[in-house]
Amino acid sequence: MKLASSSYYYQPLTDLQAQEQSDALLRAHIERLQQHFPGYGYRRLSRQLRREGIVVNDKKIRRVQEIPAISHPLAHFQDCHHRLESQPQGLSQSAGREDLDRNHQAWVADITYIRILKGFVFLAAILDRYSRKVIGWAISQRIDAELCVAALRIALEQRQPPPG
Fold first, then answer.
1. Alpha helices by DSSP H, the chain
2. pLDDT by residue (tens digit) across 111-146?
3. Is residue 127 assigned to a domain?
4. Which domain holds residue 150?
């Protein structure tokens, strides 16, 4: 088979079950810390854990908290997202529900991530601004245009808004 004998005898250095258990304990400890210090990011959490006698590097904290590493395309998406402002005339960004008088005048959307047992998933949700009801949503393991389009398609199929 033309494989090195070391490939056949390879044993991973880490015990995955032990790692999952230690990660779960660390995650519970971090969640307790975040209740007391809600504004702490991974750097401050690392310092606080060291003060309490738990030596953990920043990478492990980010892994345990399942904070995704921001790649260039995602960073570009976030920059573009905040720069684009496509508001219909007469509807300001600070406009509230009282400025609207019926459904389907304005829809708003947001993307967030949800931690699950083995990582995280992204949720795209579309809400009717007047009724504040979720009218379309989609879940995916990737944050991409397909996720947003799927949520929009569901909203359009279920609500069938009038043209315009």
1. 5-8, 16-36, 42-51, 58-65, 72-83, 145-159
2. 988 888 777 889 999 998 888 889 999 999 888 899
3. yes
4. 95-159
